[in-house]
Write a structure and sequence with these properties.
- By secondary structure, the chain is an alpha+beta fold.
- It has three domains: about 90 residues, no CATH class; about 110 residues, Band 7 domain (Tetrahydropterin Synthase, Chain A); about 55 residues, no CATH class.
- It is built from seven helices and ten strands.
- The chain starts with 8 loop residues before the first strand and ends in a 15-residue tail after the last helix.
- Keywords: Membrane, Transmembrane, Transmembrane helix.
- This is SPFH domain-containing protein.
């Protein structure tokens, strides 16, 4: 079912008509029983006018900002009024309030397995609002509960599609390293799920992401080892460049070294640069040979 506008006019018209009918009905009843004489026609007119006053009053509805009224007439949906103010609608209708305000849903911390099978804990916040009151009211039982269930389902599905982290410069999106991309993917999937409820997803963000306690310690050691290996690779690359530059500078200055002395120099420079401790100099007082 799709939303459409219901017939409505300024509510002061209904207020004015109700007041006029009520006053006229009161006077008609008064003159119908004045001086002890009963005037059937006047009494009948007075009762009819009072009924019309009640009908006019029943058509009056007041709408607050960022709210809407679903108008149904004996079970039939006849439209929605979403403009704030006082309005006159079809009399004897049921008017259900639907909020159009922006709201947040903060999911619980869910325990799922990522793409590599590692148990992780993940949570997300979803910012949404109702854009189709008819769908939100008639196509789902309770759209707020529907948003909650579908949000947690989408978070579980997205978490299972990606690894928590990419080690050794692996290609692909990871939950930790590509939070923006994951949030956009979650938003797109969630919007597809919530279209049936007339809900627009404005933003999604991961609010919690961590390894489960049973593997957190082991994965932390893995991350530390990976960081150490990466750092060592950078140090070695830098050391090789420095040694190469030193040998080139010696050649440019006319200092020639044979293969054995060159190898010894390279070994000493690499040890001094790559070592994580201060190098201890050793003075050779004899011949290298």
């Amino acid at each position: 079912m799709k939303e459409f506008k219901a017939w409505h006019i300024n509510g002061f018209v209904a207020l004015l008509l109700s007041a006029i009918f009520a006053i006229a009905g009161g006077f008609a009843i008064y003159y119908g029983i004045k001086d002890g004489d009963t005037n059937i026609a006047s009494l009948t007119a007075g009762i009819i006018l009072l009924i019309l006053a009640a009908v006019a009053a029943s058509s009056l509805t007041i709408i607050q900002p960022n709210e809407a009224r679903i108008i149904t007439f004996f079970g039939k949906y006849i439209g929605t009024v979403s403009k704030d103010g006082m309005w006159m609608v079809v009399p004897f209708t049921d008017k259900k309030n639907v909020s159009l305000k922006v709201r947040n849903f903060n999911s619980q911390t869910l325990k799922v397995n990522d793409a590599e099978g590692n148990p992780i804990e993940i949570g997300a916040v979803v910012v949404f609002r109702v854009v189709d009151t008819a769908k939100a009211t008639f196509d789902v039982d309770n759209y707020e509960r529907f948003v909650a269930i579908q949000s947690e389902t989408a978070v579980r599905h997205i978490a299972a599609q990606h690894a928590y982290d990419n080690f050794n410069d692996e290609q692909g999106i990871s939950l930790r390293g590509n939070s923006d991309e994951v949030a956009m993917e979650l938003m797109g999937e969630l919007q597809v799920r919530l279209d049936v409820a007339g809900v627009q997803v404005l933003e999604t963000r991961l609010t919690h992401l961590a390894y489960s306690p049973e593997i957190a310690s082991a994965m932390l050691q893995r991350q530390q080892a990976s960081a150490i290996v990466s750092a060592r690779q950078k140090i070695v690359e830098g050391a090789v460049g420095m040694v190469d530059a030193a040998l080139r500078q010696l050649d440019d200055n006319g200092i020639e070294l044979d293969a054995e002395r060159r190898a010894a120099m390279v070994n000493n420079l690499m040890v001094a640069i790559v070592s994580d401790r201060s190098a201890t100099p050793v003075i050779n007082t004899g011949s290298l040979y």
